[in-house]
Amino acid sequence: xxxxxxxxxxxxxxxxxxxxxxxxxxxxxxxxxxxxxxxxxxxxxxxxxxxxxxxxxxxxxxxxxxxxxxxxxxxxxxxxxxxxxxxxxxxxxxxxxxxxxxxxxxxxxxxxxxxxxxxxxxxxxxxxxxxxxxxxxxxxxxxxxxxxxxxxxxxxxxxxxxxxxxxxxxxxxxxxxxxxxxxxxxxxxxxxxxxxxxxxxxxxxxxxxxxxxxxxxxxxxxxxxxxxxxxxxxxxxxxxxxxxxxxxxxxxxxxxxxxxxxxxxxxxxxxxxxxxxxxxxxxxxxxxxxxxxxxxxxxxxxxxxxxxxxxxxxxxxxxxxxxxxxxxxxxxxxxxxxxxxxxxxxxxxxxxxxxxxxxxxxxxxx
Length: 366
Hints:
Blueprint: E1 3-8, E2 13-14, H1 39-51, H2 57-67, E3 76-83, E4 86-93, H3 95-109, H4 117-124, E5 126-131, H5 135-153, H6 159-174, H7 177-184, H8 188-205, H9 219-227, H10 229-235, H11 247-257, E6 260-262, E7 265-267, H12 274-281, H13 288-295, H14 301-311, H15 319-331, H16 336-340, H17 344-363
Parallel strand pairs: 2-4, 3-5
Antiparallel strand pairs: 1-5, 3-4, 6-7
Helix pairs in contact: 2-3, 2-7, 6-8, 7-8, 8-9, 9-12, 13-14
């Protein structure tokens, strides 16, 4: 197959209104090739690319505005026609990038953004790859290219590898989440999540007791943990040190991620599914009894979940019974020595409790 590099402007590129990305969108209708260059057809294709959330054109725009157009993945085109001696091309591969460039240039011309000179220069003209050959050859090449690109697909990095790059960019170059996000084309919030999760895993790697079990495959558990406000609060994860400051909670979490021995037999970690189980942790970590069950090496994760469910009143009528049950269970927890030798703080709390009991006794008919 013959190809040729061409230097073009964004105005010479026509979006493909029959882009495979559009086929499952509400309102999509196939367009005949003869109408591809019509302004209304092009506007509709641009609207699909700009307004469909799953295409995430905003993140791509941010990356280009920050870095300029970097043609590591070339835009691939085929010639459509020639107007006043200037060739126009249909985009075969790279419609998102083309749409991003067109909208950025329009916003810059309208004063909505102010592009740096070097960024504007990279967008005013750039290199594309033109497919040559007969109609049949070009059609065959297009199908092969799209199958390789979108069916077989580029082998993307895993979440751990992505997070490590984010950490290096933050620590060595940027020192802020926003600039990193703009450079790589994801949200600042997602950059922050990946940074926190990577640092949390790094803390486990440095732990004298559990470091041997800290592996890249655990990254997803930390990513989910720092994304759950209750779990993050339980771990007392600091956004100043990017470390868990609650030693007891941290130890329990590491134990959940590590193999353990029961009666001489090695048993796998309690946490096996990051998406499901770490999200369920939020229902356990603020309840003393389920949390104690969770920390017991001989009890499983499902036991703790059942205990948490049992502690959660289903409606308003169950609140009193639930509160009394939790209080009674807590009163039975201390050892006999603790009851015989209460300190000053315990005596003060006892006095308060006795006062509440006396008030309740007066409400109960004899």
